[in-house]
Amino acid sequence: MLDNFKSVSLSYKTAPLAVRELIALNEEEAKRFMLRLRDFFGITELLVVSTCNRTEVYYSFGQERVTPDVNEEIVRLLLIEKGITDTENYLPYFQLYPGYADAVQHLFEVCVGLHSQVIGDMQIPNQVKQAYQWSADLGMAGPFLHRLMHTIFFTNKRVAQETCFRDGAASSSYAAVELIEELVGEHAQPNVLVVGLGEIGTDVCKNLADRGLKNITLCNRTAAKAEVLASQYNFHVADFGRLIDEIRRADVIISSVAREEPLFNLDLMKQVSVLTFKYFLDLSVPRSVDVALEQIPGVLVYNIDHIRGRADEALNRRLASIPQVESIIAQSIVEFNDWSKEMMVSPTINKLKNALEQIRKEEMARYMKNMSPEESEKIDKITRGMMQKIIKLPVLQLKAACKRGEAETLIDVLNDLFNLEQVAEGTDKH
């Protein structure tokens, strides 16, 4: 029975942000935790994915037919690694996948963005690739994980090419950044001023950084928060008291300020003296940018309804694509499962080849003493060809039995017929 892959998951669906922040792992912590898992449980292949929205562990013990379920033990070890000793209260935040099929299905769905907060999020494939690199760095990505990850990457490529699942910006903050590129040109580097760094403003900063925009200035009443974000993304910080000067310099102003009256009004803009085009993207509710600013030549205002409309259109296209995405995933999983099942019989195929090769060599040794080199070479070539033809049918039958779920019976028969375990032990000794 193929049941050698399991996982545990903590995500925004099961845990609040405060809990996710406590348990999230940076690269150094993730690698240290992976080494602990290897030493504690003997895990051979391991993937640890940790982002702001999820921390997940996928693991395999190799090709044994019966493998232990250590999901709860892994969760407890993770909590202890993060300094949380009250493990019982945190266990309910985790979703456990003790079965191969569910764990594989979940990883595919996570990697294509079906479980992202913003459905179809393009960031998750890069985060998973980074986690896969950690596994490779530590020598914990074997044949199974290599094949699984490359199948997933190919599936992601198909989803991008064959569906609308990656089209458009499905969140308001991402839609705002996408709108900037439309207004100023995709490859331009405009001066962008972000005013207000609440949840939406913070998300805007992340999306600006992800899209490679560099000339970003942050302005917030609480300077400490602006400095933290600026340090994280290599942005600039401006004093809130110098807002007029920053508006003069900016090409695009993104506002997510929480206040009753618009911050950006005609009186304020009279002090700016607009000489170039300026685009105001108002993400605030109530509005923080007075629509009357459009009376000023060169000023355009886009409010949250306009930006949400763009996001909703993209989201609807993505939601409509879900059945097609699920179909692509299902096809990929079928192909991967066929390969996985064949992996289960590959040790038996190798043992059978070794057993037949051993018989061939023993018989050759009995007669080659009296042969010339030319005769020996000819007989060697003939008998090798015979062995290849003899083994071809059992190999095909084994692979066919895999797809029928009957491989274990055929493996037992071959082991008994050719005494493969003893042959393998003899080969190891040599």
Automatic annotation (TrEMBL):
Alphabetic keyword roster: NADP, Oxidoreductase, Porphyrin biosynthesis
Look up the record and name the pathway of this protein.
Porphyrin-containing compound metabolism; protoporphyrin-IX biosynthesis; 5-aminolevulinate from L-glutamyl-tRNA(Glu): step 1/2
Residue span, Tetrapyrrole biosynthesis glutamyl-tRNA reductase dimerisation domain: 324-420
What residue range is the signal peptide?
Answer: none
Site residues (Important for activity), renumbered to this chain = 106
The entry describes its oligomerization and partners as: Homodimer.
Q: What's this protein's function? A: Catalyzes the NADPH-dependent reduction of glutamyl-tRNA(Glu) to glutamate 1-semialdehyde (GSA).
* Domain Quinate/shikimate 5-dehydrogenase/glutamyl-tRNA reductase per the UniProt entry, residue ranges: 179-308
Q: Which GO terms describe its biological process?
A: protoporphyrinogen IX biosynthetic process from glutamate
Q: What is this protein called?
A: Glutamyl-tRNA reductase
InterPro entries with a match to the protein in the record: 4pyrrol_synth_GluRdtase (IPR000343), 4pyrrol_synth_GluRdtase_dimer (IPR015896), 4pyrrol_synth_GluRdtase_N (IPR015895), GluRdtase_dimer_dom_sf (IPR036453), GluRdtase_N_sf (IPR036343), NAD(P)-bd_dom_sf (IPR036291), Shikm_DH/Glu-tRNA_Rdtase (IPR006151)
Regarding protein family, the annotation reads:
Belongs to the glutamyl-tRNA reductase family.
Catalytically driven reaction(s):
(S)-4-amino-5-oxopentanoate + tRNA(Glu) + NADP(+) = L-glutamyl-tRNA(Glu) + NADPH + H(+)
- Per UniProt, what is the name of the gene that codes for the protein in this document? hemA
CDD domains cross-referenced by the UniProt entry: NAD_bind_Glutamyl_tRNA_reduct
